[in-house]
Structures are given as C-alpha cells and as structure tokens.
Specification:
Number of helices: 15
Order of helices and strands: HHEEHEHHHEHHHHHHHEEEEHHEE
Distance between the termini: 74 Å
Strand order of the largest sheet: 1-2-8-5-3
Radius of gyration: 22 Å
Low-confidence stretches: none
C-alpha cells in the first residue's frame, strides 16, 4: 500500500455549505476531520482546502502552486477585474507588482494620509452637527474621495457618491451569488468604462496630468514585451489600488469597535502615543481577530505530495485566511481579543500566521501591497478616536454575522454627539 493518500473528504460539493456557514466553514471541517487539509468540490471543481501557518507557507510556494487563472471568473468580473495583477505569474507578475510597490513608499503613503486628513476635516462640521453617523458609510466615502485624488482621478463632487456606491458593491458582492453578484458586476462595468474614458483622455493629452500619479504612471507602463497596457487593463489596475483602499473602511470600523468593546485596550491606547509596542500589537490583533477577506485561491502547477497527501495538477487550492488567523494550533485562546500576544512576536514570526491580507513577501509574492496603507489608516483611526474625538456609541446591533462575506457590524457602527477633545 502506498504511503501517499488522498486528503480526507468533507462534502461532495461544499459550495452551498460554504455560502451558508461563511468564514467558519473551512475551520470547522478541519476540526471535524482532524486535518489542516481536506478535499471537496467548489463550484463543481475539485478543490483542496488548507488552514494554518504551514499550509500558508505551502500556498505561497510558487514552484508548486500558481495564482495564474486561479480566481473564479465570477470574481474576476466583480472584485479583481479580468487581466489584473492577481492573476499573473513570473516576469509579468514581477513587473506589474513593482508598479504597485512604487506607490507604497512612505512618502506616497503620507500623501494619501494627508488627503484622508483633509477629507476628514472637511466632514467635521457634519460630524459635529449632532446627527447620527454610520461610520462604515462615512469611511467608505472619505476613502473614495482621497483614493481617487491620490491616483490622479479627477472626480467631480456630484460623482463621489456614485463612485463610492459602485466600489462598495464590488467589495460586498464580489464573491456572492444572486442579485448582489449582478449588482457588483454592473458596478465594475460602469466604473471601468468611466476610468477608460479618463485614461484615453490622458493618452491623447499626456501633458494634462502629473506623470508620477498612478493614472498616468499606469497608462505609461510597458509590459515585458515593451507594449503599453490596454486602457481596460489600466482601469482594472487603478481599481486594484482604489478598491482595496476603500475596503480598509472595514478595518477602520473594526478599530473603533475594538476600542468600544474592549475599554481596557482603549485606556492603554490613550495612555500611549505614537508607534508604541502596545499600539502596534492592538492594530495586528484587530486584523487577526475580526473577519476581513475570507480566503484565497490558487491552482496546483504539477503533482506533488505534502504531509503524505496528494496534490493533483490543475486542482484548486483554497487557503483559509480567517481560519489561519484563528487556528487553535497556532494561537492561544484564538477567539479572545488579546493585543498583548503580539508584544512577543516579530513581523517575521507571523508572516504566514497572521494573514488577513495574504502571506509571504510583498515584492516577490502575492501578499497585498496595500497592507502598509491599511496599517497607516488604522493608526490614523486610533489617533482620531482615542485622542482627538469625543463621541457616543448608542444602543445598536453591533454583532458580526460570519455568514456574510465580507463581514461587517450589522449596524455599520453608529455614533453620535461627536466633538473635539481640546
């Protein structure tokens, strides 16, 4: 008898179960089967599901797994876009990824934070009017304005609400089925067409924009053959900058929610300033504890064996991000909010264990380059809500349904009686 075997099987096809159980499905099956890898079918395709730090290391092994043509078409047509950087490999991926990383310098992130601050200050009279505010909605619109300005997209005031709504539809409907999916697909089509018009205008009059901004930089980019990207692909990649920035609104809300639900943590944050060790640990714990993107998908390059289980060429591989962040084999009391857990861990220690936005290396792998922007925006949120603003959190439903992907507080987190702390 061969020592190699097939991974244990969960459901024959888990598509419906995954939709119904949401973030907890993969982890619950791993616990039930006593294995960090199991097989099933997802959208009728043979699939291996992985959870845990070592599984994440495997997922980012480019000799064994590839992201090329891995994302389901329905997600390409809503969340990621067709032809974007997420679906590339090799030299094409390295060159395209380098274009993104060029905008992740501290100077460029500071430019974005300055724009967010300007937008925030412009909204303060409304915030201080006494009206109730849904923070998730406020953050979505704030980040949309700032991200478009940062990318060199001249968005007229009357179009801000529409652009924000379309981006939110893409974020919230990208992996769904039914009406949410079709709304997301229409939103992407409409937004790409709007950006294509701006890109074509720039290419006709290249002197009309600052060439260091993302829109002209992407429009002027040359691939490995020396050819420019089609305007549609430029639009896709611009959305791969703007959409993730707008999605950080969830982490900003979770940051405020964590301070509200854990007043002892808020007190510690208020006692410290700047980049304290506790503050950095708090941000990482928010990212580990609260649900963000549920999983990632790759495809097996060639047959191989891992932990005595067969991985067949062409099969889908799904990495459970939420389950890895809550893996009881890696984290002590994973369902408790404990910022202190990160005081003893360096960034290298949890490169494949804390993976809310993917794992591995930013420059050579598929880890999200926008992670640095996420950290900066969460840090800004702490500055505002722990040090600069007074506010009240009225009674509301702050529960987070793990069956909804991406998750959010049911109320969106309502605050009122906003004021400034002198």
């Amino acid at each position: 008898m061969s020592r190699y075997q097939e991974a244990p099987r969960a459901n024959r096809d888990c598509t419906l179960a995954l939709i119904q159980e949401g973030y907890g499905y993969i982890g619950s099956q791993c616990d039930r089967l006593g294995s960090d890898v199991f097989r099933s079918r997802l959208m009728l395709q043979k699939t291996l599901f992985l959870r845990g730090e070592e599984a994440a290391r495997l997922f980012y092994d480019r000799n064994r797994l590839t992201r090329e043509q891995a994302a389901p078409k329905r997600m390409q047509k809503t969340l990621f876009g067709v032809g974007g950087v997420q679906g590339l490999e090799g030299e094409s991926h390295r060159r395209r990824k380098a274009m993104f990383l060029a905008f992740m310098s501290q100077a460029r992130i500071d430019d974005l934070l300055h724009l967010v601050e300007q937008t925030w200050q412009a909204q303060m009279p409304h915030w201080q009017s006494g009206a109730s505010l849904v923070l998730l909605d406020e953050f979505h619109q704030m980040l949309c304005r700032a991200a478009c300005d940062w990318c060199g997209i001249a968005l007229k005031e009357k179009h801000v609400a529409e652009m924000t709504q379309n981006l939110v539809l893409m974020i919230e409907g990208g992996g769904s089925v039914g009406p949410r999916y079709w709304k997301a697909r229409r939103a992407r089509h409409q937004t790409e067409n709007t950006l294509i018009s701006m890109i074509d205008d720039y290419r006709r009059r290249p002197e009309s924009a600052d060439s260091v901004l993302p829109l002209p930089a992407f429009a002027d980019f040359r691939d490995e053959t020396g050819a420019p990207l089609p305007s549609r692909i430029v639009a896709v990649e611009l959305l791969n900058l703007i959409r993730p920035i707008v999605a950080v609104a969830r982490y900003m809300v979770f940051t405020v929610l964590a301070m509200h639900e854990h007043p002892d943590s808020l007190a510690k944050l208020q006692q410290t300033a700047g980049s304290s060790l506790y503050r950095r640990g708090f941000i990482e714990e928010v990212r580990r504890y609260y649900p963000f993107f549920p999983f990632l998908i790759a495809r097996v390059r060639q047959d191989f064996v891992w932990r005595d289980y067969r991985f067949h060429r062409g099969w889908q591989v799904v990495l459970d991000l939420y389950g890895t962040n809550h893996d009881p084999n890696r984290w002590n009391e994973p369902d408790r909010f404990l910022p202190e857990r990160f005081e003893q861990e360096s960034e290298d220690c949890h490169r494949f264990a804390t993976i809310p936005q993917g794992g591995g290396e930013h420059a050579t792998g598929h880890r999200c380059p926008g992670e640095w922007i996420t950290l900066a925006l969460m840090d800004l949120t702490i500055d505002k809500f722990a040090h600069q603003l007074s506010y009240r959190v009225p009674d509301q439903d702050l529960s987070i349904a793990l069956t909804r992907m991406p998750a959010r507080p049911r109320s969106g987190l309502v605050i009122d009686q906003v004021g400034r702390i002198d």
